[in-house]
Amino acid sequence: MKQKATCLLRACGFLLVLGALMAALTLLFLPKNNREDFGMGEMKANAILTEPADTIDVLALGDSECATAIVPMVLWREQGITAYNCGTAGQKLYDTLYYLKQAFENQSPSVVILETNTIFQECMLSDTLYAKLEGWIPLLRWHDRWKSLRSEDWGPIEYTWRDEMKGHMFYLDVNPACPGDYMKYRSDVRQAAKWNRQCLKEILALCQENNARLLLVSTPSAVNWNYTNHNGIAALAEEFGLVYLDLNLMTEEVPVNWETDTKDGGDHMNAWGAEKVSVYLAQYLSEQYDLADHRAEEGYAEWDEALRLYEKAWDETE
Length: 318
Known about the structure:
five-stranded parallel beta sheet; 11 helices
């Protein structure tokens, strides 16, 4: 009995030492700034870390369809809505869940927009489980950083890099599309993969825990979207009790010109297409969610400066 107690104490002591070591390494390896040279990937999405606490009312998430089509500065210009776009290229739903959890640590958005193309970016069980492990053991996400540690990594966390586009990927490229009747009615339904559905449930639960409403939005894409995809998302929206906007079918509200409004032959919106998408979303969000107009409020002058820089980016078209 005494021998068993000794073994148990040793095991507990080992686990305590191991836990303390992992905690210390996590603090050391965690990027101390949100810049790429500090080991932080996806700088535009992670620049939300520099936004003042509880100032973001709308958060957009998804893959590159989201990143290119939803313009926070247009939502600000039109309705005074403070929004941030955490869309990233090829974003999977377990990545979405990570960015959402990170945002909720410092922000309290009233609305979370999920661009729906990412729902069909298949999540494998192994990747989903590993993403969960990274959530429980952050050291797994940053374990490779030992190769590039610097003196600053021994100091405190200080996020400094801000993105005046608030995460939006701005493109002035024009490559016309020949979309044909890409949204021709069909009755068949594209099913989301099993683990995608599970991630979507967790995203919805996280939004509900944080008093945020989840809005599904399909932005215009003649390459990635069709009526079969629409039916799949419409079925999910009904099942989970969510509002769903398919802008591919809303040609009067969002009058995309496929000759001028796409940067790559109908896959993603360029700046002109994104303007049309975002003007409509600004009006819809203001009307449906009773969001505050912050344009006349003290403390939001930085948003006016960001809008000035956004408008300056259009100078290249002249």
